Amino acid sequence: MAGHSKWANIQHRKGRQDEKRGRIWTRLIREIIVAARQGGGDLNANPRLRLAVDKAKAANMPADNIKRNIDKATGNLEGVQYEEIRYEGYGIGGAAIMVDTMTDNRVRTVAEVRHILSKNGGNLGTEGSVVFQFKHCGQLFFAPGTNEDQVMEVALDAGAEDVITDDDGAIEVLTSPADFEAVRNALEAAGLVPEVAEVTMRAENSIALSGEEAVKMQKLLDMLEDQDDVQNVYHNAELDLGE
Fold this sequence. Notes:
By secondary structure, the chain is of the alpha+beta class. The chain is 43% helix and 25% strand.
């Protein structure tokens, strides 16, 4: 199945995440704590925790840090109580935005998210206003030039829902959240290592923004991602920043 070009946006996002490496540990620790609190500290029985620990290891977090935060979440140590809250709203050009947060103070968090949106040309919506435009799924991206036939064969045999070749040759594999690990493991066992592999909220349709609108949207997304309580920002904008 063919698709639009997302590769430039994926690479741009990865580059910005690399610039903010120091903040990633904070977010990963929160995810580990919440995942362990909800599903227990056994990695074999808790897929969400297993994925969070994999991400932490990939970000070079020491094993002691990981274990300490699992213990904190499962009651072996005292810790902060985090609450998961999702906010929905709109950005430049009516682009849909979802902001997943973990916070110990929901009044502070909603005020800051609302302020960032309104200050940068967006607005906070009501619950359910944009979530229908996204699909909860596993998503794996392979760089242009990867063997498309091999990716398709391995991925579909392992239970993937779809394999999409974008206009620029990048390959996107979609899975159900439950099948994500099995598909990723099968691909990596075949020597096919994705550039990006995550369980995410994928936009069903996109809005193309360029020029000044794209710059404004990127500024808005950066400010949301820099907010201390924000874990993930999802949106349906494809940005042409002219880079």
